[in-house]
Amino acid sequence: MSRAEAVRAVSPLWTLGLLRSELLTTFRRWRTLALLGVLAAVPVLVGIAVRIETGDGSSAGGGGGGGPAFISQITNNGLFLVFTALAATLPFFLPMAIGVVAGDAVAGEANTGTLRYLLVAPAGRTRLLLTKYATVMTFCLVATLVVAVSALITGALLFPLGDLTTISGTRISFSEGLARALLIALVVAVSLIGVAALGLFVSTLTNSGIAAMATTVGLLITVQIVDQIPQLHAVHPYLFSHYWLSFADLMREPVYWDDLTRNLGLQALYAAVFGSAAWARFTAKDISA
Amino acid sequence: MGEASASEQDGEHTGGGVITTRALTKRYRGGQLAVDGLCLTVPAGSVFGFLGPNGSGKTTTIRMLMGLIEPTSGTAHVLGRPMPRSARAVLPHVGALIEGPALYGFLSGRDNLLRYDAADPTADPRTRRIRVLAALDRVGLTAAGGKKAKAYSLGMKQRLGLAAALLQPRRLLVLDEPTNGLDPQGMREIRTLVRELASDGTTVFLSSHLLDEIEQVCTHAAVMARGRLLTQGPVADLAAGARGRLVVTTPDPADAARLLKEQGVADVVADGERVTGEVPGRDLAEVNAALVTAGVRVRGFGVERASLEDAFVALTGEGFDVAG
């Protein structure tokens, strides 16, 4: 058994090596970069549209009536483009991107057959699934930050920057506004954890990456529609998207925490339920692709 | 940890084989019986040919051995430990090529190997790059290592898949159809590689539907058809199961056939200048002397060994077709 002893003891840091490999693989995919590119373009388009609309001196959104939250404030302060862009991408663009990446995470590798080689390496099913989930959550954060940074740069280039007024009417300094923008971006990223867990679970059900992506995005659209139907208000508090726009409460003075904490609790619930379901499914699955 | 006692226990019912299965059975959810009561023993140090037509259950067996699918019933032990339960302890010692290579098309060949090596908990990240280069060199892909894998030909993909199996020193290599998609030169290189690995003491489990390939490199073989094991043993014994034939090449076939019958050769068939018959019990030198003494001009005289293909046909009573 001399050769058995020659095999290295497993380093506890090995999981980090696997995570690094997983992140590199995900972020070198052309599809991932295209999704981030689309997300980066949204704030630029919104910024240019607002700039053109208000070129004659009128304010955008007809004095704050329509359009995404905060849009009427952009001309006064470019920082509001960050909030507007996040409010505009959170209902669909961001979760769709997450759905694509999460749906593809396991099913895509099963489809190309690379999953079986990772498992005989042996990466270990639980560890591989955790690594995949960590990667999808990293993508949530990166995607959100891409929107926020793109919006900040566009806002700084097209509009003036300075102190800003909260929803409650109090004024805060630009640096505090910037800190709140970062906090909001983090809350938005956390809001996507539920979709990520759902997508990963769907991904363990099929060997087709495309089917998993389509199912996840389909579920997202269905949930958004159900959330709009007043007769179904009984289920609304359980829909992962129901409290998404609560991030705006961070712009109140003092911050209104109720919906924010409900949102975080709901995302944790989704992560626990669908994370467990994905684990139960993936660890017992016959890998026949 | 009590691991020593556990492995001793396992050793009892593995009989020293590198792979041992007992009544291994897999029934898929549709009710289809893919593998039916398989009892396989792969001796340590052998080059073991796993033979059978497409659809005979070879790949399902390999997937069960690698812990990818759960058996419906029966047990499988690899390197003395039960699978799939001991996958984490066993699989680092096993290099595998299962149902063809699978690669990340958008990564270079080298990056594909780095990725697979990162998935192995026992692989040392400090030597990763060196081992990847060595594996690429071993399969002749050094020049193409930087190219994107999607630009690879089928043969190059196959070589990269083999390189992934060779990233670490292994005690067992499981190679499912390793020469698939390779040209004759590539096939010969793979055969040489397999022999090299075997001479280093690695047990090689090689599945194939190419009989002559098995015959050329394998010391042992097993034959499967329709999910059942037909036979297993040393290749020489299997081929001996089908008897060879005496072949005489001569410009006088009629005389030769008559004389051979007189010499006690049964089942004599004359086909042009070739006269064949069952190998008689007596000394072949005397048979030849008798032919020459009688004035039969002999160009060639010898025994043609039965091929594994003859053995296979004798076993299954049929050709080498796809099972339904």
Automatic annotation (TrEMBL), chain B:
UniProt key word Oxidoreductase: no
Organism: Streptomyces edwardsiae
Family (UniProt): Belongs to the ABC transporter superfamily.
Keyword tags: ATP-binding, Nucleotide-binding, Transport
MF (Gene Ontology): ATP binding
Protein's name in the database: ABC transporter ATP-binding protein
Cross-referenced Gene3D superfamilies: P-loop containing nucleotide triphosphate hydrolases (3.40.50.300)
Ranges for domain ABC transporter: 19-251
Upper lineage: Bacteria, Bacillati, Actinomycetota, Actinomycetes, Kitasatosporales
Superkingdom to which the source organism belongs: Bacteria
Keyword Transport (UniProt): yes
